[in-house]
Each structure stands twice: as structure tokens, then as C-alpha cells.
Amino acid sequence: MSRKKPRGRVYLVGAGPGDPELITRRGYALLMSADAVVYDHLIPHELIMGLPPRIERHDVGKQAGCHTVPQEHINELLAKLAGRKSRIVRLKGGDPFVFGRGGEEALYLAKHGIPFSVVPGVTAGIAGPAYAGIPITHRGLVGHAVFVTGHESAGTDAGGVSWSDLARLDNGTLVGYMGVGQLPVIVESLIAEGMPPDKPAAIIERATTGSQRTITARLAELPRLAEAAEIKPPALFVVGEVVCLHERLDWFAALPLFGCRVLIPRPDPQADNFYSELRLLGADVLSIPLFYVSPDFDRRAWARLQTRTRPGDWLCFFDGAGVENFLEIWRQQGKDIRGLSVFSIAATGIDTLTALNAIGINPDLVDAVGTIERLMETMAAKLNFENRRIVIVKGDGKNEVDESILISAGAEVIPLVAYHRRSFKLEQNDCERLNRFSPNVVILVSDAIVEAAARVFRGDAMGQMLTDAICITVGIPATKAARARGIIITHELAAPTIDGVVDALVQYFS
Fold first, then answer.
1. Which domain holds residue 69?
2. CATH label of the domain that carries residue 356
3. What are the catalytic residues?
4. pLDDT score recorded for residue 6
5. What 8-state DSSP symbol labels residue 33?
6. Has residue 2 got a pLDDT over 50?
7. 106 and 220, same domain (yes or no)
């Protein structure tokens, strides 16, 4: 008797309030290992665009007044996916159980016998004020905080919100979600019920992102100032004495790269290693995969590599993909990193150096300019290659090397293709997210990335993105490729270093 296939498990995961790094470690691990992801409109761009291509994606985005997919259809979709997938992540903004209808979805799953788990997230009502320098509790000012939804009409009891009780809130902070459209009615109701019209208040738009804006005012003036500033959802409003701390504690907007929206095209799944540094300085960073690489087992070259290896032989790496895929195949041959100690290692390029440093390798020879030709010339001029072998690690059809430079120096050259490169095609939703992100900086770190970006950004709107943004090229190959494509370069960084990129942006935006 055959057993019924067990249902998959649905994970209700909080994505946090907007900053992609505020998702929990558990939530991110589940997201990256999911079979399918069902996500809302306000999920951070990078969390979705960085998903591995094997993951099935379902956009059920909701905006105020515009529900792309009705809630009952979302529930049915989760049930359907649970019947054919093992791990389904329902990714929700903020925390699933804080004004996110996660409770309704959990009840539906429980009713239909579908296993589920809840992974809490950082809710906007705490993170948003924190990023605006407003602690929602503070000894000596307020001792408690109340969270409410302003989405329902303030003139009714819908949603269980009693504005008359909230108006008498003493020694506390009122934090309202989804209240932009109803703000005038909410404020009018609070004042009519007895809340002082001069009570400190604030509204925070797109909290925790580089587009964050904060307006503070007396409560009675807040709707007028918010309308004049054209504040749009998503936004929070805060009422309480703690708002007075904003001017002294507004740390996020004071960061040197606040308001800088950086687009970094990259291979997948390579991580751009200056993300964290840019974000620590206040920048929004969106990394989009334009192509992916897969290991390529060049049997003949690997056979030559593993015979008669002698101290003094060299491994040459030109990109991070070469490092990562070489090591993957190396491990598949039953070897570990200690086996590389017989080689001297040469490298060029920022992602190459970072990939090597990540596994504890400092190259014996580095070309600071970042060109393959320059590295070969330096090696031929400085080193004795008599009866030595040089293994050139490369991708298919890329990183062509003039081997004659090394051969004439007496070396035996082994070209080793370690990976294939395949192009990604951005989906319509990805393009829309990219347009909404509206980058004002694009960083191009290799000629391969420039070529891939040129293919992706062929449309009028996408092409305009490169024209309007500050364009930084890192390394001579990227600069040459960008010029050949007619891309206007704002900054050229010859030395491929993280510090160089960060310093250029800080100087520009300061």
C-alpha cells in the first residue's frame, strides 16, 4: 500500500522593514534554501533579485488600495505549493504577525493540516523610529509604546482601534502603521478626543532605506507638512515626547553615503565584498546577477596539472569565478587546500583577491593595475620560469592570454578552463524592481560584467539608467569595455581595491 506523499512545510518569514541586512540569520538561510518563495510588494529588492535561479518565485505584492492577489488566493497558492514542494517560504515585510495578516495565513494552513513554522522579523514600528533617531521608549520620557494600524478609517471602530483611548495615552509613544492616507483624519480624531495639539510628532517614509525621510512637527501641523513634502507609503507616524530626540540622535541620515543608491551588477552567486562597507556608510546597495558560472571539468588539462607538479610551479587567477570553481573541482578530486602549497599563486582583480583571501591565501604576486597582460609581463620580467609550469585558470572563451610571453621565458603553460559562463535574463518583475530602485551609482568591476550589463540594459528605460547614474569602473579591463560600449564613466579606479571604491563615493557625495 503506497503512502501519501507528505506535505511540504510553509515558513512564514519576516523580511524586516526595508534594509535587507535586517532579516534574521534563520530567515535568510531558509530563503536561500527554499524550493519556492511567495513574497509581498515591499520586500527588499536584493532579497528577491538575489534568489538562486532554481527557486520558484511568486509575486503576490500588495500596496495600499491595490491588492495584486486577493488574500484567499494567496492562501490557496500556499496550499498548492505545499502539495508539491518541500520548503515554501512565505516572505512578508517586517514581522509576519505584526499587521501582516500572517496570523490569517497560519490559521488557514493549520485548518488544512499543512505544517508551518514562523520566523519573526524586525518590525518597522521599532526599526523605523530607531533609524530616525527616535527611541520608542526612553527612561524619564516614556515608559511604554503602543502600535496601531492607521489603515482603517479613524472615524470608525474598524480594526479595533479606539482613538479615544489612544488620545489619553500618557507617558507613552504611539506608533502608527499604514496611516499616510488617513493621517489628517487620525490627527483630527486624536485632538478631538483630547490629545494635545502641540504634542511632538513625526512621520517616517521608507524607513531603514537610503530613501528614508523624516518630518517632525507639532501633532496638529503634521498632516499639512506631510502633504507638502509629498510623503508616500510606506510610512510610519510617531507621536510622543521621544520625537524630541530626533534632532540629536538622527544617526542614519548623517552617514556620508546616505541617499546613495548603488547598483552592482555581478555574477551569480558571487557576493560583492564591499556591500557591507557601503551599507555601513549609509548607502542602499542592490546587487543583481547578470550571469552565472558553473564548473567545467577540463579532463586533459587537469591530468596535466596533477602530474609532475614541482615547487615553483604557478597558478594564475584572473577572477573570483576562476578561484571558486577551480577549488570546487579541486575538492571533487579528493584534495584539500593544503595541496595548493606546492604552487606559487599570482592574481589580478578585486574579486580575485577577495576570493583568495576568503580561503586564507595571500597571492605571491599581485598586479595592482588589474590587467591580465600586465600580470603576465610582470611575471616574465621578474621570475625565472626555466622548466616551470604555469597553470592559467580561466573561463570558456574569456581571459584570453598571450601565452607566448611566458613560453618565451621558458615556461610550460597549461590553459585550464575551470568554468562556463551563462547569461541570466531578468524577469519583468526584476526589471520593475530595478526601475523602482532607481540607482544613482553603478559600479562595474570587470569587462565581463560590462558586456553582460550592456545586454541587459538595452531597453530605453534600462539604458537611461546607466546614462543618468554615476558610473564607476574598477580596473582597466572594465574601463576599456565601458568606453567601447559608449558608457560615460564618472570615475575610473585603476587599483581594484574596496577602499578605492568607498573613498571615491564618499568624496563625491560629501
1. 9-121
2. 3.40.50.10090
3. 40, 62
4. 52
5. T
6. no
7. no
The 10s digit of each residue's pLDDT in 190-243 is: 999 999 999 999 999 999 998 999 999 999 999 999 999 999 999 999 999 999
Tell how far CA 350 is from the center of its chain. Answer: 19
pLDDT digits 0-9 by tens, 324-338: 888 888 888 788 888
CA distance 366 to 213: 44
Q: State residue 475 phi and psi, 5-degree precision.
A: 95, 150
Residue 233 is part of a domain; what is its CATH number?
Answer: 3.30.950.10
How far apart are alpha carbons 257 and 319 in whole angstroms? Answer: 28
* Domain identity same for 399 and 480: no
67 φ, ψ to 5°?
-95, 105
| Mean pLDDT calculated for residue range 20-44 | 94
More confident of the two residues 162 and 187: 187
The total of other beta-carbon atoms located within 10 Å of residue 43's CB is 22
As a whole number, the mean pLDDT across the chain is 84
370 beta partners = none
Q: Is residue 184 part of a domain?
A: yes
| 387 in the same domain as 273 | no
DSSP at 130? H
pLDDT-based confidence at residue 127 (cuts at 50, 70, 90): very high
The reply to whether 4 falls in a domain is no
150 and 131 in a common domain: yes
The C-alpha atoms of residue 493 and residue 475 are separated, in whole angstroms, by 6
CB 78 within 8 A of CB 9: no
- 225 touches 205 (CB < 8 A): no
* Assigned domain for 254 exists: no
